[in-house]
Design goal:
single chain; 259 residues; 7-stranded parallel beta sheet; 9 helices
């Protein structure tokens, strides 16, 4: 693909097949999205963690669909190349498959997202399939899913025993079969993450793994809500870009003062 071509699910699958890393950031605004896009970021997740990091809520379930659409619009306006994945907020897809498709469609049609993300395992397979069948690219999210963390015993690592690990592996298999082109796997043991990756054709992003992971489709990190680690070269390029932008802004300010 060319350096300015929009990244699509097929490009991410190809990268995994070739053993190449995939970079992802959680970004919630136009300015940072533009900087990240300029330095070659692959994917941007407009995560519902913005509820806490950008809007001051005490949890992720408080953010509304309209608020998520607002932030996704801002990011999508800036991301000319990077894939924009919109996190579907709590109760925007749990009531029915029909409502889930409507909500997902708004992210694509109104906000300019390239894909959506939903949390959950086998219980949401029919919902994910409905979104996929409507022509909307969808990412699954298993392990620690914050929208349902109360049911999981709090914000704790998942898949800690053999039975729980098997359920996660089965969840991953079911979501991919339903149409998920990628998975986010959060707070699981390294061995479980590797097992999920080995059985799947799609890329995975590991969050808060118990030990560093270095498989294709590495990890994501957000400037406003940081999780895990990411490609060091990307962040160094982003830092250089920000410094250059600041120098330019200072020069413009000085020029305007001189006039």
């Amino acid at each position: 693909m060319s350096t300015d071509e929009k990244i699509l699910p097929a490009h991410l699958r190809q990268r995994k097949d070739e053993g190449r890393k995939i970079t992802m950031l959680s970004i919630y605004d136009y300015a940072i999205a533009g900087l990240a896009d300029d330095v070659g970021l692959d994917t941007i997740l407009v995560g519902d963690s913005l509820a806490m990091t950008a809007l001051g809520y005490s949890n992720t379930v408080s953010v509304t669909l309209d608020e998520m659409l607002h932030h996704t619009r801002a990011v999508a306006r800036a991301a000319k190349r990077a894939m924009v994945i919109a996190d579907m907020p709590f109760m925007s897809y749990q009531v029915s498959s029909q409502e889930a498709v409507r909500s997902a469609g708004r992210f694509i049609k109104e906000a300019g997202a390239d894909a959506v993300k939903v949390e959950g395992g086998e219980a949401i397979v029919s919902t994910l399939k409905a979104i996929h069948d409507a022509g909307i690219p969808v990412v699954g999210h298993i392990g620690l899913t914050l929208q349902s963390s109360a049911q999981l015993g709090g914000k704790v690592a998942q898949g800690q025993d053999a039975a729980a690990a098997r359920r996660l592996i089965e969840d991953a298999r079911a979501l991919e079969a339903a149409g998920a082109f990628a998975l986010i796997v959060q707070s699981v043991p390294t061995e479980v993450g590797k097992a999920i990756t080995a059985q799947s054709s799609g890329p995975h992003h590991q969050l808060w793994g118990r030990r560093p992971l270095r498989w294709p489709g590495d990890r994501r990190r957000g400037p406003a809500g940081s999780h895990g680690s990411a490609h060091a070269g990307l962040f160094e390029a982003l830092r250089r870009h920000v410094r250059a932008r600041l120098r330019s802004d200072r020069a413009l300010l000085q020029r305007s003062t001189d006039i």
